[in-house]
Amino acid sequence: ATCSDAPAPPPRGLASPATRQPFVIGVCGGTASGKTTVCDMIIQQLHDHRVVLVNQDSFYRGLTEEQSEHVEEYNFDHPDAFDTDKLLECMGKLKGGQSVNIPIYDFKNHRRCSESFRKVNVSDVIILEGILVFHDQRVRDLMDMKIFVDTDADIRLARRIRRDTVERGRDVLSVLEQYADVIIPRGGDNHVAIDLIAQHIRTKLGQHDLCKFYRNVHVVNTTFQI
Ligand code: ADP
Ligand code: C5P
Q1: What lines the ligand 2 site, CB under 6 Å?
Q2: Which of 19, 129, 170, 208 has the most CB atoms lying inside 10 A of its own CB?
Q3: Ligand 1 pocket, residue 56 CB under 6 Å
Q4: Which residue's alpha carbon is at the smallest distance from atom 10 of ligand 1?
């Protein structure tokens, strides 16, 4: 047989359904860094393979009534915000060659849709993307390859404001409230930013000391009055 007659071997590292488990790729990165976009582009390129995308966002825990009343205090960027046991259950099944029903998360109401799921079928490649997919050792252990998507914080913020106001039922203020007060580009090389921040902290500490002083004066006065 000539080379061209031989069946093409599966690409190195990718699953051959009869012999191997699916190849699992973890894609992590900051909010609105382009994780989903990158994954979609990889999936398009691998069109001759069965590739599925699993989003960590699908495993956000729904808020209780009480939490919903104080949603501005809820931390959606903490590992506990995700139902990681459920994610592990679904990933375990997929890796073992079973199709699964993945929850659908409603960003507008911060809840899981109770009546509908997304059916994800058996595949050669599973891509798991999310802001904290590298946090849990058990999730990391599932991965054959890890990718980090890096995009400047100011670009991410601009994208997030647009996306969350258009698609996720948010207003600009609520997006900004979840964000940092100050972003330092170029880290430790940015001496101007660090000097300004140190100066601001000093001013705040000065105000704090002044408040303490007045509180003490008040207490002393009270004591005298007694
Ligand atoms: P993530 O999954 O990391 O949150 P997305 O891929 O969903 O990020 O991208 C966030 C938003 O930014 C989306 O609205 C998307 O259309 C947009 N976006 C992503 N990549 C680019 C890009 N290279 N240029 C412009 N907009 C982009
Ligand atoms: O798609 P992306 O990776 O940006 O989604 C994660 C982000 O969604 C987190 O930064 C989190 O703060 C935000 N989020 C939110 N409201 C929710 C759930 C998640 O703002 N109900």
Answers
A1: 31-32, 57, 60, 76-77, 107, 110, 131, 178
A2: 129
A3: no
A4: 32
Q: What digits encode the pLDDT tens for the residues 175-191?
A: 999 888 888 888 899 99
What residue's CA is closest to ligand 2, atom 14?
76
Residue 160, pLDDT score? 97
| Nearest residue to 56 (alpha-carbon basis) of 151, 145, 140 | 140
- Containing structural domain, residue 206: 187-225
For residue 206, what pLDDT is reported? Answer: 87
Q: Which of the ligands is closest to the CA of residue 127? A: 1
In order of 127, 136, 142, the CA distances from 94 in angstroms are: 11, 18, 11
CATH number at 27 reads: 3.40.50.300
Structural domain total, the chain? 2
Question: Residue 81 is encoded by which pair of tokens?
Answer: 């915000």
Cβ neighbours of 174 (radius 10 Å): 14
pLDDT of residue 222: 40
- Across residues 28-43, what is the average pLDDT? 97
Asked casually if ipTM beats, i.e. exceeds, 0.85, the reply is yes
Q: Say if 164 falls within a structural domain.
A: no
End-to-end Cα, the chain, rounded Å: 106
* Ligand 2 atom closest to Cα of residue 30: 3
The residue length of the chain stands at 226
Please check whether residue 25 is in contact with residue 140, taking contact to mean a CB–CB distance below 8 angstroms: no
Output the pLDDT for position 18: 53
Secondary structure element (H or E) that encloses residue 176, with its range? helix 172-177
Closest C-alpha residue for ligand 2 atom 21: 110
CA of 3 to the centre of ligand 1 (A): 42
